[in-house]
């Protein structure tokens, strides 16, 4: 539906609108920059944005990708699609107390599509989509900046005019090559920010389409306003920041479409001026459109609240220490310091880090802290810009500065800790949208300098230099995001006080088998944060494997003392106590772990091992059965059941369990081996042989597989094949227990047979 918008006191509103636009100073007039046709400008932006992040296409899954993608059951085909609408970004139920309440079902849906098309967890497809999304967004920014910097005007044929082609190209290039965007593009979980930004911009452009003019006068379309609200809702379903576009659309409407002077409006409101209608606030259509935006926003938030529930997300002090400070003064000072650091990352994105928590930024607790200067600098700049945005006599300047500040501040509000606690100190990914405002302000500042400068080419070369440095920084930072080792090590120089950085470097080293180096980093993580229970748990695990049981027990005991519901630490403590032959304490630790995590198959498995050591065979079998019920693919639990039943002479039951296990895990060679042993003892030689051969095909270098197959042939009377597999087994493991004795027995028997035959 189209409504004509007429001002009763200004019947020639359309002509006046065009005259005003022509009288406004053109931002491009004094700008020393390249002038390209719109098509070529977009091609250049797309190409440069691609070059910045192209080397991330074959990177690994890193950092949060493991939880959000690899361990997220919502990506798998067996999970009903409907579950995505009731789970958070990490695959947990929104109703769970442990949920972070990050509701992004459309982002998870794209991950699921990636997974299905790739046929598994192959990161290349995930990375390529992220790069394409950033290139698309950067191209859209050319249109967005042309509106924000040049105004919204249409030709007689209804085509939108680009009145600032040079400045919109510069701003789009600044956005495309900003290094702070690397986390969003090179980190796969950053797709939430990319999708949110895509629909955020589409919502804005859709809102602008509502004001396409026609022959009847200046008009607006309710249809496009509603489309804009729907696109804003989609943006929010990709990431929470998306809802802020509705507020920005309202600001744009007031400043650009209705050309409201905010300072004049405030004065008239304060003095209850009866000429408010002339100020533009009550101009026909504005309040109606803002009402539509407000109702749409309220409806979206209500639906989100209904789905998410009333409980706030559960964060810990190490995630965001300032939010747990008792003093309101300390909280306020540190929040403002965080804002200044975010602003610095936009201005000078050289020191970038995947995680800024856990001591990376120590709390400011006193006004004598020199870092207060950063707060003063931030607010000095912001107040100066706000004063210019409100008080300048130049309407063009007022509009650009207000829009720049609006796009800088409003999308950042959900991450500001003002409305609710967030789970981070600084997150580079949340600056993706606010960087739009930074690019507007930078471009406007450059245009002012160009206007004053005599040697404009030097300024242009300087800006080109900044763009080139940013491209190089993006390429370098993208390469660091290609693997966890590079990513974590790159953070050591930026945040040496961050315990999580040391923890992640240690974990990466431990996964690669370098336990000695991992221990050093885990110890440093615990030193930096004496309450870091995850570092204590992992360090305790390594010490347990190195048989340093006493220190392992001390660390794990401290971990469960600090966090009594830490189920993994309770289980690992039980393993250590079992190794120390303190069986009653170990059993108690296992049951405590299960109390805190009801579905804990690994703990039931270890509990079964404890019962087996105590010859409590029935209890052991029950524990392992529980493990397989909770996790049907738990190969170790199945194997232990088969072996225990085999060792206790229950061959029929062992055979039944083995067959059941192989139905569930048909390609597990260890299960084939265990069942083959049982079948051999039951004199089912043919079937046993088939399983042994299948197991050997899957794992040809297992000496025990060849050795036990040789025993089978030995019993079966197939002595030549027995000799062959004994020899293979001894070649693979000359110290294999029993194999050498059996081989010698076979050789003597063969010699006796040869003598008899001779």
TrEMBL record:
Among SMART domains, the record links this protein to: TPR
Which Gene3D superfamilies would you find in this protein's record? Tetratricopeptide repeat domain
Can you list the GO cellular component terms from the UniProt entry?
A: endoplasmic reticulum; membrane
Major location category of this protein: endoplasmic reticulum
Q: Which SUPFAM superfamilies match?
A: TPR-like
Boundaries of every DUF1736 domain copy: 311-383
Which pathway does it serve?
Answer: Protein modification; protein glycosylation
GO:BP terms for this protein? endoplasmic reticulum unfolded protein response
An example of a GO molecular function for this protein is:
dolichyl-phosphate-mannose-protein mannosyltransferase activity
Family membership, please give it.
Belongs to the TMTC family.
Protein name per Swiss-Prot or TrEMBL: dolichyl-phosphate-mannose--protein mannosyltransferase
> What is the scientific name of the source organism?
Platysteira castanea
């Amino acid at each position: 539906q189209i409504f004509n918008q007429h001002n009763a006191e200004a019947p020639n509103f359309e002509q006046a609108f065009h005259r005003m636009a022509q009288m406004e100073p053109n931002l491009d007039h004094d700008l020393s920059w390249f002038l390209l046709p719109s098509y070529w400008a977009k091609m250049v932006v797309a190409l440069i944005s691609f070059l910045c992040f192209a080397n991330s296409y074959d990177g690994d899954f890193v950092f949060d990708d493991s939880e959000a993608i690899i361990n997220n059951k919502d990506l798998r085909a067996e999970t009903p699609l409907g579950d995505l609408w009731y789970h958070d970004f990490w695959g947990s139920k929104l109703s769970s107390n442990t949920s972070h309440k990050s509701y992004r079902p459309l982002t998870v849906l794209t991950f699921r599509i990636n997974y299905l098309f790739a046929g598994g967890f192959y990161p290349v497809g995930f990375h390529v989509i992220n790069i394409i999304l950033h290139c698309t967004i950067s191209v859209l920014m050319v249109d967005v900046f042309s509106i924000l910097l040049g105004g919204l005007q249409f030709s007689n044929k209804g085509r939108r005019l680009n009145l600032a082609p040079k400045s919109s190209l510069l701003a789009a290039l600044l956005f495309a090559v900003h290094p702070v965007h690397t986390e969003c593009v090179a980190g796969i979980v950053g797709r939430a920010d990319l999708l949110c930004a895509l629909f955020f911009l589409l919502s804005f452009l859709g809102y602008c389409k509502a004001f396409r003019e026609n022959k009847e006068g200046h008009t607006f379309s309710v249809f496009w306003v509603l489309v804009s609200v729907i696109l804003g809702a989609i943006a929010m379903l990709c990431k929470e920041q998306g809802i802020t576009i509705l507020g920005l659309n309202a600001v744009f409407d007031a400043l650009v479409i209705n050309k409201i002077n905010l300072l004049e409006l405030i004065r008239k409101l304060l003095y209850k001026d009866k000429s408010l209608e002339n100020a533009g606030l009550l101009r026909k259509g504005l309040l109606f459109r803002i009402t539509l935006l407000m109702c749409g926003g309220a409806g979206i938030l209500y639906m989100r609240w209904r789905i998410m529930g009333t409980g706030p997300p559960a964060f810990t002090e190490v995630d965001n220490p300032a939010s747990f400070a008792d003093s309101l003064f300390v909280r306020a000072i540190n929040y403002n310091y965080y804002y200044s650091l975010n602003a610095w990352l936009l201005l000078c994105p050289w020191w970038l880090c995947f995680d800024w928590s856990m001591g990376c930024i120590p709390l400011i607790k006193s006004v004598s802290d020199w870092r207060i200067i950063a707060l003063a600098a931030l607010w000095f700049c912001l107040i100066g810009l706000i004063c210019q945005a409100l008080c300048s006599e130049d309407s063009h300047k007022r509009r650009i500065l207000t829009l720049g500040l609006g796009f800088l501040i409003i999308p950042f509000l959900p991450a500001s800790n003002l409305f609710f606690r967030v789970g981070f100190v600084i997150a580079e990914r949340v600056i993706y949208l606010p960087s739009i405002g930074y690019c507007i302000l930078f471009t406007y500042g450059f245009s002012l300098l160009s206007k004053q400068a005599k040697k404009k080419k030097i300024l242009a070369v300087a800006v080109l230099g900044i763009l080139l440095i940013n491209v190089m920084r993006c390429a370098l930072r993208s390469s660091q995001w290609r693997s966890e080792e590079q990513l974590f090590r790159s953070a050591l120089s930026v945040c040496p006080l961050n315990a999580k950085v040391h923890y992640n470097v240690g974990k990466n080293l431990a996964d690669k088998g370098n336990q000695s180096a991992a221990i050093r980093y885990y110890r440093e993580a615990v030193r930096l944060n004496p309450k870091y229970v995850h570092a204590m748990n992992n360090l305790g695990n390594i010490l347990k494997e190195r048989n340093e049981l006493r220190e392992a027990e001390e660390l794990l005991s401290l971990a469960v003392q600090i966090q009594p519901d830490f189920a993994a630490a309770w289980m690992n403590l039980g393993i250590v106590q079992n190794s120390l032959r303190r069986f009653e304490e170990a059993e108690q630790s296992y049951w405590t772990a299960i109390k805190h995590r009801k579905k804990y198959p690994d703990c039931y498995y270890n509990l079964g091992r404890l019962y087996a050591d105590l010859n409590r065979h029935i209890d052991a079998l029950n524990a392992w059965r529980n493990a397989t019920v909770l996790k049907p693919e738990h190969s170790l639990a199945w194997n232990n059941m088969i072996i225990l039943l085999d060792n206790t002479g229950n061959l029929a039951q062992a055979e039944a369990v083995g067959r059941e296990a192989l139905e569930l895990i048909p390609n597990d060679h260890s299960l084939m081996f265990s069942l083959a042993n049982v079948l051999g003892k039951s004199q089912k030689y043919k079937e046993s042989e088939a399983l042994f051969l299948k197991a050997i095909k899957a794992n040809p270098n297992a000496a025990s597989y060849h050795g036990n197959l040789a025993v089978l042939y030995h019993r079966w009377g197939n002595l030549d094949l027995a000799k062959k597999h004994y020899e293979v087994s001894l070649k693979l493991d000359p110290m294999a227990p029993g194999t050498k004795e059996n081989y010698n027995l076979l050789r003597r028997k063969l010699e006796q047979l040869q003598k008899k035959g001779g």
